């Protein structure tokens, strides 16, 4: 039988040599590929840098543009905040990381300062309004989308910041670790419609709840969770409950 | 869902209210929210927006909520007292209208008033935090407010004596409380004045002197 490469010691040498050649070839090939990639990356970087420096102001200033930009990042699988360095090189180029962090700090500021009166639950629109106020006119406009995104970046802090949907297109931001049961979500939704005021009668008439159920839901929010305030001078029902996070505060 | 023809928030203002609160129209077009805004009273005091919140007037069963409410009321009472230069606050002021405190203890725009039991609770907390003292002592129906602490009044008194060239002269308490030229101390209640003088005495900046028709004080330059 004729073996490719023959037999004996010489064949062994030959085999080793061809392995070495293959290895060399593969190294060259992958080196080429790596170089190629580096080149592409460098190109991508410079293009990105150009884009960033050209549109930096628009990204910071214009909420629509920012949204489009964030979506573009998401679709190509790039996180503007991620990177080897602090804030990421993306963030470094765009200054967007700082922007997002700064917004995060302001969100925490508003949530903490309003917590005593709203029990740690704030309506998203109200939060946006108060954060905008804090930033002043010069800060440029921010959107609910920006706030939600920033709240996501707060998640690793474990402070329990969370956006919750209370239905009817309304969202609330919870800044304390607290579970809301289904009935409370209903109460919150009604409070949103009524400028903060809820009564047992309202829940009975609109939701067909029994008085016991309405009373239990409201008393829990009042006594256990501190999410609402009692009004004993209500003209319509005598007793009403007010949810500060659904009230529109202007100060 | 049947919507009331007369939404509950309707009673929040009257058509002829000179300063109607702004209405926030929701995107669905219903009038759903009223902005709780600051309000300037006829006497020129700017009420914080919380004063327009109906539940602010009710004593809260949740202790931590009530602590917030008490804190806001305390701030409001002290700041209004300072604004109007009134020291005395009585439970009666909450019971009967027509006194110095009407603008604070009631809100006619939302038809709410502070019940005297709630005021009593607030005053108790204020006394506990040395923001007021019961006066006369041994009762809990009226207080003197420390919108300036006795320590602050001591400095005010000392500075007043210096700026009006009355160091080393003997002043009667009456001359301090009702000076011929109005001063920051005009009308200061005697118990607060006494505390202020005692503080100055302790730092060798005043001497109490018994004079023919009562007591007087000699203010000294001190160190």
TrEMBL record, chain A:
GO terms for biological process: protein transport to vacuole involved in ubiquitin-dependent protein catabolic process via the multivesicular body sorting pathway. This is Vacuolar-sorting protein SNF8. The keyword Transport applies. It comes from Meripilus lineatus. GO terms for cellular component: ESCRT II complex. Component of the endosomal sorting complex required for transport II (ESCRT-II). Keywords: Protein transport, Transport. InterPro entries: ESCRT-2_cplx_Snf8, Snf8/Vps36, WH-like_DNA-bd_sf, WH_DNA-bd_sf. The keyword Lipid biosynthesis does not apply. Component of the endosomal sorting complex required for transport II (ESCRT-II), which is required for multivesicular body (MVB) formation and sorting of endosomal cargo proteins into MVBs. It comes from the Eukaryota. Belongs to the SNF8 family.
TrEMBL record, chain B:
The lineage of its organism: Eukaryota, Fungi, Dikarya, Basidiomycota, Agaricomycotina. Gene3D superfamilies: Winged helix' DNA-binding domain. Chain C. Domain 1, Winged helix-like DNA-binding domain superfamily/Winged helix DNA-binding domain. InterPro entries: ESCRT-II_cplx_Vps25-sub, ESCRT-II_cplx_Vps25-sub_N, WH-like_DNA-bd_sf, WH_DNA-bd_sf. Keywords: Protein transport, Transport. GO terms for molecular function: protein homodimerization activity; structural molecule activity. It comes from the Eukaryota. The keyword Ribonucleoprotein does not apply. GO terms for biological process: protein transport to vacuole involved in ubiquitin-dependent protein catabolic process via the multivesicular body sorting pathway. Belongs to the VPS25 family. This is ESCRT-II complex subunit VPS25. GO terms for cellular component: ESCRT II complex. SUPFAM superfamilies: Winged helix' DNA-binding domain. Residues 1-20 are annotated as: Disordered. Signal peptide: none annotated. The keyword Membrane does not apply. PANTHER family: VACUOLAR PROTEIN SORTING-ASSOCIATED PROTEIN VPS25, VACUOLAR PROTEIN-SORTING-ASSOCIATED PROTEIN 25. Pfam families: ESCRT-II.
């Amino acid at each position: 039988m004729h073996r490719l490469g023959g037999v004996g010691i010489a064949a062994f040498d030959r085999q080793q040599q061809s392995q070495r050649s293959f290895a060399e070839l593969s190294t060259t090939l992958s080196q080429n590929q790596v170089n190629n990639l580096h080149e592409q990356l460098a190109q991508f970087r410079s293009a990105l840098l150009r884009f960033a420096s050209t549109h930096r102001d628009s990204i910071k200033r214009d909420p629509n543009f920012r949204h489009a930009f964030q979506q573009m990042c998401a679709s190509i699988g790039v996180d503007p905040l991620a990177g080897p360095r602090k804030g990421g090189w993306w963030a470094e180029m765009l200054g967007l990381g700082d922007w997002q962090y700064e917004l995060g700090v302001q969100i925490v500021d508003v949530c903490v300062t309003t917590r005593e009166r709203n029990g740690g639950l704030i309506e998203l629109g109200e939060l946006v309004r108060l954060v905008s106020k804090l930033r002043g006119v010069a800060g440029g406009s921010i959107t609910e989308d920006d706030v939600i995104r920033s709240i996501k970046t707060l998640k690793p802090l474990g402070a329990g910041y969370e956006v919750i949907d209370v239905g009817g297109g309304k969202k609330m931001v919870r800044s304390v670790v607290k579970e809301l049961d289904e009935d409370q979500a209903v109460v919150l939704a009604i409070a949103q419609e009524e400028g903060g005021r809820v009564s047992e009668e309202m829940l009975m008439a609109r939701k067909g709840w029994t008085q016991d159920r309405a009373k239990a839901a409201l008393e829990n929010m009042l006594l256990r969770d501190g999410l609402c305030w009692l009004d004993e001078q209500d003209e319509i029902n005598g007793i009403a409950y007010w949810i500060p996070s659904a009230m529109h505060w202007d100060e | 869902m049947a919507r009331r023809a007369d939404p509950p928030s309707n009673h929040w203002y009257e058509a002829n209210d000179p300063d109607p609160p702004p209405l926030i129209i929701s995107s669905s077009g219903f009038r759903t929210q009223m902005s709780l805004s600051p309000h300037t009273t006829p006497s020129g005091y700017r009420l914080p927006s919380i004063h327009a919140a109906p539940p602010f007037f009710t004593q809260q069963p949740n202790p931590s909520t009530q602590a917030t409410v008490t804190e806001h009321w305390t701030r409001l009472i002290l700041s209004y007292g300072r604004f109007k230069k009134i020291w005395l606050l009585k439970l009666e002021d909450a019971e009967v209208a027509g006194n110095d405190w009407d603008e604070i203890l009631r809100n006619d725009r939302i038809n709410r008033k502070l019940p005297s039991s709630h005021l009593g609770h607030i005053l108790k907390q204020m006394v506990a935090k040395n923001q007021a003292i019961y006066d006369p002592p041994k009762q809990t129906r009226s207080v003197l407010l420390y919108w300036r602490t006795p320590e602050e009044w001591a400095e005010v008194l000392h500075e007043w004596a210096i700026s009006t060239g009355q160091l080393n002269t003997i002043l009667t308490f009456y001359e301090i409380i009702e000076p011929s030229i109005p001063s920051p101390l005009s009308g200061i209640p005697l118990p607060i004045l006494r505390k202020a003088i005692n503080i100055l005495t302790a730092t060798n900046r005043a001497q109490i002197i018994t004079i023919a028709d009562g007591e007087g004080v000699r203010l000294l330059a001190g160190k």
